[in-house]
Amino acid sequence: MPELPSEIADYIDSAPPERRARLTQLVELIQQLSPQAVVSMRYKMPTFTAGNGWISVANQNIICLFIHVS
């Protein structure tokens, strides 16, 4: 698994313990399924971009996954 940029790792580390493991699993799954995706912080969320599509993972009261495909 490629190492995450520090701002992404910090985002995950700042999540409450009960959500941190699930965020980590989602990020790892996205990296496995789309290894060419570029990860960055967009809209204050970890965002993976590949081609014209992107996926963002949010730490809210529940874990949210935003997907945009064009």
**H/E element order:** HHEEEE
State the low-pLDDT regions, or none. none
Query: What is the makeup of the main sheet?
Result: 4 strands, antiparallel
Count of DSSP H/I helices: 2
The counted number of beta strands is 4
Over the alpha carbons, how many angstroms does the gyration radius reach?
A: 11 Å
Shape: globular
The assembly state of the depicted protein chains is single chain
Characteristic key phrases:
globular, about 70 residues, 4 strands, four-stranded antiparallel sheet, alpha+beta, single chain
Description:
This protein has a four-stranded antiparallel sheet with strand order 1-2-3-4. The protein has two helices and four strands; from the N terminus they run ααββββ. β2 and β3 (53-59) form a beta hairpin. Helix content is 36%, strand content 34%. It is α+β, with helices and mostly antiparallel strands. The relative contact order is 0.19. The mean pLDDT is 85.
Please render the helix and strand layout as text.
Blueprint lengths: L5 H8 L3 H17 L4 E5 L2 E6 L2 E7 L3 E6 L2
